[in-house]
Amino acid sequence: MRSIRIILWVLVVVAAAAMAYLYIYDNKATQVSGGKLGGEFNLVRQDGKPVTDKDLLGKPHAIFFGFTNCPEVCPTTLYEMSTWLDELGEDANDINVYFITVDPERDTVEMLAEYLTSFDARITGITGNKKDIEQTLRSYRVYFKRVELEDGDYSMDHTATIYLLDAKGEFTGSISYGEDGKSAVAKLRKLLKS
Ligand code: NI
Questions:
Q1: How many CA atoms lie within 13 A of 42 on its CB side?
Q2: Taking the model in full, what pTM does it have?
Q3: Separation of 157 CA from ligand 1 center, angstroms?
Q4: Spacing, Cα 97 to ligand 1 middle (Å)
Q5: Suppose 144 and one of 12, 90, 158, 177 were both cysteines; which one would form an S-S bond, judging by CB atoms 3.0 to 4.6 Å apart?
Q6: Quick check: is 4 in a domain?
Q7: 64 with 156, same domain?
Q8: What is the CA(142)–ligand 1 centre distance, in A?
Q9: How far, in Å, from the CA of 125 to the mean position of ligand 1?
């Protein structure tokens, strides 16, 4: 009787700790508001050239995180971003748009290059080794998690929000997944003036 009570108490404590952890972790992933995001990094672009955190500065930039095997969110977002850039026309040349992979093991330079040919050429893909990518994702407070699939393959859960940062790397706003195109373009125009 006593041991059952102890086991129940242990379960309650473990469940409470897990919920607290998830709550904090989830908030960390989604509560991005103001301030400088990102840290130092040395990664590689889809054309094989190196890219560092310094390269992102100097121009307002929009960053999106995902992976090329993504069934829906990533292709949809990249497609929509392409239409928004198209609408902005030459003005869009003053925004740097980056797609940073959350799946560096599969998203090699070649894979990213091939994948991005389907979208606006102004979208730059970024990959690198697993450790460096994970460190970068954490510095942007991005949520990412590998999910094992039944067929032995895997998928990645990830933040679907597009981050908008000014030329100094300060977070100025975001575009949500599925956001109305008019609203998204207005935010990009505003970003151009930041
Ligand atoms: Ni995705």
A1: 0
A2: 0.82
A3: 7
A4: 16
A5: 158
A6: yes
A7: yes
A8: 12
A9: 14
Query: If you measure from the C-alpha of residue 3 to the centroid of ligand 1, how many angstroms do you get, rounded to a whole number?
Result: 46
| CA 93 – ligand 1 centroid, Å | 25
Q: Looking at the domain assignment, is residue 16 inside a domain?
A: yes
Domain-located, residue 37: no
Considering only CA atoms, which of 60, 31, 59, 79 is closest in space to residue 188? 60
Tokens at residue 166, please? 């000014």
- For residue 108, give the CATH number of its domain: 3.40.30.10
17: amino acid identity, one letter: A
Q: Which two tokens stand for residue 11?
A: 């379960």
Phi, psi of 10 (to 5 degrees): -60, -45
CA of 166 from ligand 1 middle (Å) equals 24
Domain hosting residue 27, numbered range: 1-32
Backbone angles phi, psi at 35, to 5 degrees: 80, 170
Same domain, 21 and 49: no
Residue segments in the chain with a per-residue pLDDT below the cut of 50 = 22-30
pLDDT digits 0-9 by tens, 8-34: 776 666 666 655 554 444 444 445 556
